[in-house]
Structures are given as C-alpha cells and as structure tokens.
Specification:
three-stranded antiparallel β-sheet, alpha/beta, 48% helix, seven-stranded mixed β-sheet, 418 residues
Length: 418
C-alpha cells in the first residue's frame, strides 16, 4: 500500500515538473503567451509578433485580450499561482506592487550589452515610471499625454474662436458658459471628476499642488491648491457648464464627446484616432488650458516579463520586437498612441494628418509624471470613493479631501515600514 502511495506521489510530482518545464504547442513549437487589454492596438501587436515569429520559426506567440476591469485580477491570480503570461502590459498604478511582490523580472541584465535597446531612446518620464531602485522592469511602449479635444461645430455655430495655447481656467469657464445649451441638453465642457489622469490630477498640478510629494511620503490632498482645484470643478457643475458626477458615472466621457453632447473634453492622446473617426473634420485639439503652472499629467504603458517565465531570453526578444523602432513604428502608423520611443513619436504625427497631434508631443516637454507609490491602488481606492461621494452630495468637498489625506498618509507611512 505504501509503495502504491509513493508511486502516485512520484507520478504527480513528475507531471507537475513537466507542466512547469515550459510551454509548447501541439506542433512541438515553444509557446510564449502575451496579455494586454486594448484590442485597438491589435494590428500593431500582430505585426510585431509576425515579424518575431519569422525570426524565431520554432516559437508560437499566443495573445490574450482581457477587458481592463478584469485584467488585473486575472493577471495577479495567474502570476501568483506560478503561471500566467510570459509578457504583459503594465501600468503605473500597479507597477510598484508587482515589483515588490516579485511578479515581474528585472530587465537590466538583458539590457547590458544589448545594442538593440537603450533606455536613452525613450521618453524619460516613462522610463522613470517603470524603474525601481534605478532598474528598469518594463520596456516603455507608448505614452499618454493630455490635451483639450473640442468639437469645432460648437464654436462655429457660436461664432467663437477655437481654443489655443493662450487659454487658462478662466477661458474654460467663460467660453464653456457660452457653449452650454440647457434646452438642447448640451454642455460646454466635461470636467472629468470621476477620472484622475485626464481630469483632476492635471488641475491639481496646474494649481501648484501635488497628489503625492516627490519622495512619496506625503499626500497633497488637504492643501489650499487641491481645494482650489475642486472648488473650480464644482463651480463648473453648479453653473451647468459640465455634466454632474452622476451623469458622468452613468455615461462614459467618450460617449458624451462622440455623441456631441459636450463641446470640450480633456483627454489622453490615445483617443485621438477614435474621435477623428467619429467627428471627422469637426475634431480639434489644443493644449490644456493653463493654471498657475503650465503642465499636465503623462502616463504610459510598458511591456513587463513574468518573473517565472521559463524562456526569459525569448521573452526578452519578444519585448524588444514589440517596443523597438520597428514595433513602435507599426503602432505609430496606425494612429493608436504616441510611441514611447522618442524618434518614432514623430511618425505618429503623420498618422492623423487632420488632427494637431503635435499638441501631445509638446505636452511631453512640460509634463508631470503620473503619481504613484508602492501601494497606489490602495490610496486611489480611497481617493475615488471620497471624491465621487463629495460630488454626489454625500459629504462636503473639504470633508472628502481631509479623509483622503488622512488615509493616504497612513498608507504611505506603512509603506516606509515595509
């Protein structure tokens, strides 16, 4: 009986070892698995993978797209269980957590002596975003800077000049009022109170404030600058220049703009192609109106490697194929997003010749990096809940900001102890 049990245990262990020794397809080829969430980039990703597979005929690459709402839960579960994709998209809010949990691999050893990849070729803000203790953990793929999209038809019908680089917050309020038509259910501006990257993070920094200080030890939410920001946003809603928070929760910002219910919307560059397809020649884009400081938030996506991948050299070759000049050129030509590769970002300008995409490249020169820390997701959960609660009338803005500040500082203090 003991021999039978021992044999079964050995058999199970053998099966497990085979299962963990590497992935292979039915035709005997090695398989690399890739995961991301936006199918709009599929043409560019497919082209890079096709090129990679030609150079590596013994490898098959399998790509899985998972909706963003499910992506992180699915990814964390699979990686934590010792499996998961070999290569996958990483974003700023989740980066520190994945690094400190040893779920993604340090890329520095692969960079050393590799003449085909140099960090200096990529926008510094995104390199910094995906670096931990001066080591790169995700290869920059594309960047998201923010601009002011507008519908020219609203301005033409009102006989108003289009937004330009001279605009300030005062212009949003003044012109937004003139463009708002309550009887038609249209608004002059959408103030993005339920989203941070395209919305209030920009205004906080334009007001001279900060979300988190440079050494990531202190919240900036309970400061005069942040209070000024949210008073401005609230005033836009009270004056009915912008849809209120409940309306923004019920209907996505993109739908407000593409259904021509709002004249202006601050949004990231990745939406340019979609907006142009819907609005055509009526689409315009200008720099974000300035506050006390002329800045905006920049974020970006990087390609990370599973720390437990069995084919790390092949995974690195695939990451290079996706993020190098050739890979980002394909993406740039589709108009999907601004490549993080600085040289290739210029190619993107020609992808939508009727849209002033230079606005987004100019924004990168004076942008502020997306605010993150080791436990970003925890304090952002508090932030989102409290801000939405305030704009839904459940508490005052000051009460919400004070609570965010208190709980965020407690989280940051815990980070310092880890």
């Amino acid at each position: 009986m003991k021999k039978s049990v021992s044999f079964c245990i050995l058999l199970v262990i053998s099966v497990m070892l085979v299962a963990c020794s590497g992935k292979s397809s039915s035709d005997g080829k090695k398989t690399l698995e890739v995961a991301l969430w936006d199918e709009n980039v599929s043409d560019a990703v497919d082209a890079s993978i096709e090129s990679f597979e030609k150079e590596h005929p013994d490898v098959t690459v399998k790509v899985t797209y998972t909706p963003f709402a499910e992506y992180w839960t699915k990814l964390r579960t699979s990686l934590g269980g010792g499996s998961g994709p070999d290569v996958f998209w990483m974003n700023g809010p989740n980066f520190y957590q994945y690094v400190t949990s040893d779920l993604i691999k340090d890329l520095e050893p692969f960079l050393q002596g590799d003449e085909e990849f140099a960090k200096e070729n990529y926008y510094p803000a995104v390199v910094d975003l995906y670096s931990y203790e001066d080591k790169l953990y995700a290869a920059p793929y594309f960047v998201d800077s923010v601009g002011l999209f507008y519908n020219k038809k609203f301005f033409d019908e009102a006989g108003l000049d289009y937004p330009d680089e001279t605009w300030t917050w005062e212009d949003i309020e003044k012109v937004g009022t003139e463009l708002t038509k309550p009887e038609e259910g249209t608004y002059g501006y959408l103030n993005q109170v339920v989203r941070n990257q395209a919305g209030y993070y920009n205004l906080i920094h334009q007001a001279g404030g900060y979300v988190i200080n440079e050494d990531k030890t202190k919240s900036g939410f309970n400061t005069p600058e942040v209070k000024e920001t949210f008073e401005f946003l609230n005033r836009l809603i009270e004056k009915k220049i912008s849809p209120n928070a409940q309306a923004q929760i019920e209907t996505e910002a993109d739908q407000w703009f593409m259904s021509q219910k709002v004249a202006m919307i601050p949004e990231i560059s990745v939406h340019a192609a979609e907006y142009e397809e819907v609005l055509g020649e009526d689409l315009g884009v200008a720099p974000l109106p300035k506050g006390k400081v002329d800045t905006s938030i920049v974020h970006g996506i990087g390609w990370a490697m599973n720390s437990k991948t069995k084919d790390e050299d092949l995974a690195w070759e695939l990451i290079k194929s996706l993020s190098n000049k050739e890979g980002t050129t394909v993406m740039a030509e589709t108009g999907f997003a601004t490549p993080a590769h600085m040289e290739i970002s210029k190619v993107w300008l020609d992808s939508l010749p009727n849209v002033e995409l230079q606005v987004f490249l100019d924004a990168l020169e004076k942008a502020t990096a997306y605010p993150v820390s080791e436990r970003t997701s925890e304090w952002q959960t508090v932030e989102t809940k409290e801000i939405q609660g305030a704009f839904l009338g459940q508490k005052s803005i000051d009460e919400a900001l004070e609570k965010i500040d208190k709980e965020m500082n407690a989280i940051l203090e815990e980070e310092q102890k880890d």
